[in-house]
Amino acid sequence: MSDKEKPPMMQGFKKAHEMVKNAEDVKIYSHIDCDGLSAGAILSSTLDKLEIQHEIEFISLDLLDEIKPENELTIFSDLASGQNLDNFLTSNSQVLILDHHPPLRSLNQYNGGFLELNPNHYGIDGSYEISGGGMAYILAKTFGFIDLSWMGVLSAVGDMQDSVNGKLQGLNREILNDSISINQLHSYHDLSIYGRQTRPLFVALSYFGDVKLPITNNRNECLLLLRELEIPTFGDGKQRTLYDLSMDEKQRIFSELVRMLSREVPQRYVKHIPQLVSGDAYEFLNEELYTPLRDASEFSTAINACSRNKEHEIALNVLKGNRNSALKDMEKLTRKHRRYLAQKMDLMKQEDSLIKMENLQYFTGYGIKSEVIGTITGMLLSNGDWRKPIIGFTNVGDNKDGVKVSLRCSRLLAYDGIHFGNIIQKVAEKVGGFGGGHSVACGAYIPESCTDKFLQLFDSTLNGVV
Length: 466
Ligand SMILES: [Mn+2]
Description:
By secondary structure, the protein is of the alpha/beta class. It has helices spanning 8-21, 34-49, 86-89, 132-142, 149-158, 171-181, 201-206, 219-228, 247-264, 273-277, 296-308, 312-320, 324-350, 373-380, 411-415, 420-430, 451-461; strands at residues 26-31, 54-59, 73-77, 94-98, 114-117, 185-191, 234-235, 238-239, 278-284, 355-356, 361-364, 390-397, 400-408, 434-437, 441-447. The protein contains 17 helices and 15 strands. It starts with 7 loop residues before the first helix and ends in a 5-residue tail after the last helix. It binds manganese (II) ion (MN).
């Protein structure tokens, strides 16, 4: 294929390839979530392989305007498309942005040493078709480093790009196929129950919670159900996990979940139930069985546990394959993370903190670390009314006076056509904040004095919608 026939984004990557190849001193800034960490690991591994000296730093969006150009080439990864980069526009430092968030600047607004690659400029959906890690991987692939593709898949899963229809699509699918082609990864259709490798089946089942069922948060009910379905919970000297089940056993659980859900939800949702119960699983074949690293969802949780404890270095080491002590450290952080979540959940339940409005429910989780407010909001979903979204508030911390808002809802509402990411963006802007995200998981930052106004506006926006 000649250059002219290549899709335009690839021409951009060709330029990026040249920029990176010719650089001798590189600084990478990547975002602090699972996608950003994986993207950073892909870029850092790429530069390692090219023997290019570099530093990497993981930062949150609000710190971006404090950064000054100090290196020959600065790469921004999984961030910066939505931010002002005035410090860099007037400097001699070369800038490469690899982001997938909605861009502020139009395509090719800047030339010379400033290159911004964003799928949204090329008609590619940055929410579902490619992640920040995916963009980093496409660059890595121009150097032939297909072995880094598994991290591109992990990034997409970490960013919940498969959250709505249960599978990766668009460029994500191509990255997935690269990984499959070198036997790094196995992709298969499975029950969408979290904890495939590490959780005993009856525990994993009890967390099934887009819609509240008799088994939700009830391990005894789960054990009874498995007994009824004649699925042993113990085998080969250990508790069985979802991974251990035969196709036939999975089919029995699938049918039973569909039956239970059909009884709970209004008729118009029934056709969406199979999507809720099953989806694609991604298994990393080079990782050890029954560890969180073997399954993409569980791996992304482990990375998030590092990130939420501000231990980015540990995540980076695990991702880059420097496993020895990093792996143990990561396990410790995962346990700590889980304990923290359980404590906060207990507190929230004791205080019965979920307040109901006409079209939504909310809680004020002041004291919950802003990094985990989204996770807690999602966990509370199975305690409230699944027909309405849950909104959680917490302080941002670090002496800033804003409030972080998180929203989670059942995927059934998204199947019904509601996009809460777009709604929260508009409502946040009306009260002087900013926000956005996915249809079923999104967030915002708003001034603390505006939380009541925000809730009222949000609630009235949903009149007739939910
Ligand atoms: Mn991202």
